Amino acid sequence: MIYLAGIERVFQVGDEAVHALRNVDMTVEPGEYIAIMGPSGSGKSTLLNIIGLLDRPDKGIYRLENVDTTDLTDDEQASVRRHKIGFVFQFFYLVPRLTAAENVALPLILAGVAPSEREARVRAALAATGLSDRAKHRPDQLSGGQRQRVAIARATIMRPPVILADEPTGNLDRASGKDVIQTLEGLNKEGITLILVTHDPDLGNRAPRKLQMVDGRISGDTETL
Amino acid sequence: MLLAMAIGVASVILLTALGEGARLYVTREFTSLGTNLLIVLPGRSETTGGPPPLLGETPRDLTLEDALSLKRSSAVRRVAPITVGSAPVSWKHRDREVTILGSTPDLFDIRHLSMAQGRFIPKGDPTRGSAVCVMGHKLKKELFGNDSPLGEWARIGDRRFRVIGVLAKKGQSLGLDMGDVVVIPVASAQALFNTSALFRIMVQANSRDAIPKAKKAILSMIRERHEGEDDITVITQDALLSTFDRIFTALTLSVAGIASISLAVAGILIMNVMLIAVSQRTTEIGLLKAVGSPGRQILSLFLAESVILSIIGAAFGLVIAFFATWALARAFPSFPISAPMWALGAATGVSLLTGLIFGVLPARRAARLDPVQALSRR
Q1: Which has the closest alpha carbon to B347: B223, B232, B268, B256?
Q2: Which of A24, B124, B225, B344 has its CA 20 to 30 A from that of B374?
Q3: Residues of chain A found within 8 Å of residue B366, distances taken between Cβ atoms
Q4: pTM beyond cutoff 0.80
Q5: Does A106 sit within 8 Å of B291, measured CB to CB?
Q6: Could you say which of B179, B209, B230 is where a domain stops?
Q7: How would residue B49 be classed by pLDDT, with cut points 50, 70 and 90?
Q8: B66-86 confidence digits (pLDDT tens)
């Protein structure tokens, strides 16, 4: 469902051109659980951002569910992001002014879903991540693990087929981190494609398919072994 | 910043209210003079036109006969010749220097006068002046106290006049305080001041539509009588009124324009506040984009915020203006201060527009943020 070919991404940092991605090819089937690993600066986050349509490649093709994404307008891109992709970040990125329930409802509000339907879906999502009693709390009243679970609930509320997680446990202690990984893996078992970026080898080893990245290239893919 | 918007809106409304009040005040004063009036003055004064003539012109006097001849026009309803002079008026041992008005009974209707006591100058041959006079109420109070002056003989200049009436209190009418004058028949005034020249002639036209016709008739009749010379000026109350109207409207508009500058300042403040908000909420905007909000939606989000801020500021301004107008009306009851509806609407509309215009720049900046960069800024 995800098809990348010849992806290149170059950043201008001052006078230098930094080649974040060089000629990357990658195919992902629905329902896969992939961990992308590598040292910092290897381009893992950039690859994830391109898959998540937060960034555009300078060269190459990216097809998501057979739709060529390079020609999409800004509106169409936003729509794809809303419906097809759920993003979970290292730093959670919850809106500090809103409660947990309101944060989870954000994508629904943006999509124009009716308030009554919104409430039902938010309640279900919070129950699924075990946060029903924290619905009215604001992010600064939640622990790190709880915040990340709110972020996961937000990422999945639109029932996207793909979840991208960029170092989701990077800011959490071991126990909360375990909770979060289990939640994500639970979603994968339901059939959602899960792509994880991490530099923690213990985490990466849990995934059935591992990609190794060095210097903007995929240096190893356990699937092709 | 809300305060700035509020002050801007309030000042625009207040200033237009003051200007409008001034205009109403002046037009009210004018209409209190009388209706369908034309005023004839000796001497030609051009308000528009070329240089003064090379050879001097001596304007002929306006005579009583000139005035009476005007009655022949069908467009003219009433004519009141007026002579003005100053003379000492005394009764028993009290005396005062007073303005003396010489006129005919028509003056009563033309100027909408009313009597407190007695009657006005009696009808009769205006070329024969009788020795009667009508006093203003202030003068009457000074000379006679609370006693009735009717039938008494007052001395005016070197003659004696019998008091036949007292004018009711009317207040100022374009500078002439009717409480402080004595009205005598025009022929008596001419004899008293030893002149046959009239100060003015007041003419009342039959109707509003008859005014231009009356003006033409007056000009042609006097020209005929003055051997073909155009040496009078005819002012219509209408023309005066419309001139003043235009002047005051222009004044009000320019003053309101100046006040609008403060609205623009408020707009700039809104823009600054929104720019700061955008830079502080950069991660939030990045998140919104990551969650699937198109740039357009973010644009309208921030635009809506700045418009709402303007509306709140404008609402405050309306409240301030309302209270200020009310307080001023209490302090100066004779001044008709009233904020016209269009000013209220215009001020609110302009403040909304300001919010929109000055909110566009920050909103566009927010919409254009690159999500990856926005998110990486913590």
Answers
A1: B256
A2: A24
A3: none
A4: no
A5: yes
A6: B230
A7: very low
A8: 888 888 888 888 888 888 888
